[in-house]
Amino acid sequence: MVTRGRGGVLRVSRTGMLRTAISGACAFLALLLVPVLLLPPSAAGARTEPLGRCPGSHVLLLGSYPSEVSANLDREVLDPDQPTVIDGIDFYAGSLDGSRVVIAIAGPAPSVTYSTTVTALKHFSCTSAVVFSGTAGGGGESGLGDVTVPSAWTSNNGASFAPVSTTALAVARDIAPAATSQLGTDAPVDDGPCLCQGDVHSLQAVPILRTPRVIVGGYGTTYGGQSDFCFPEGGMLEGCNACPPSSGASVVPTITVPGAVSPTEASLAARSGTLVVGAQSLLSDESAPPPTAASETAGGPAYIADDQQTTGAQQAADAYHVPFIAFRGISDTTAVGDLWPFEWLVYQQLAADNSATAARLWIGRWSKA
Asked: Looking at the domain that runs over 15-368, which CATH code has it been given?
């Protein structure tokens, strides 16, 4: 569904690999004994939109799969008779910490993300901004658990860049310190495809062993994913629509313990279908150091966020002259080697929740501007 490669290397579809990894993890759970232009946006004539609002304006908040919107959807006070279903897409209208929002899954592929965003902008009048919140691969200065807010995005590997709203970016800089102070460091064990709920209540969390931060500025890239698709019963990781709020499908209760294993160890164990939790490690060989992530692609800029959906939503927002911004939590990096999608399986919920925190604070500030 969401294929990614780091540092501009060739991306390989992860749909089969991800479903195999999820199946393997579920099978082992019951047996676990260890709980525009090639110029910077500032020089590219980025748009600055007025902050005028029509009565009842709202922010359109999107994610690419259910885990990415679960934290904010669970906090949303829904309007009556929600969700609003349009062309099979569930849109949840209501209030998020007092700010009007519409929350939905935009889809796994850039073309689907584009069409979903257009559908929302046509149906829900007075959209004051489009916000994409979700996970991404990290590069350059970004690291595991960070939330990146690129100032420009490319969909053609750096041949051209589209700047985000400069007004929206300024608000992101304003809320960055507060958001950084609220970012999590412990990876909750979520229920993946919603098939393992009975087996994971005793699992513990895996800390990232670093202090994450909100990084505003830099470049993001959307690469590949055109053939990815979701599943109607795909659950938190591959579902086409958000799991309903308070459905019990978001995050399984976890216990965090000190002295946890490293992200590299946790990711390696996930590759074998086993989740490493708590203070002990299931690995015996720790002698090989992880490779170092490259900071730039060949002949191009460093991308602080790498995903497969953002520019689809951005292109739709730009077409409708609606301010756009994206918050991408880093769920996997090249720092642990070639471990996609296993590192993502361990840390995607932490990354999704961190990006949700930053997006929520941004929406609160934006709605009061």
From this structure: 3.40.50.1580
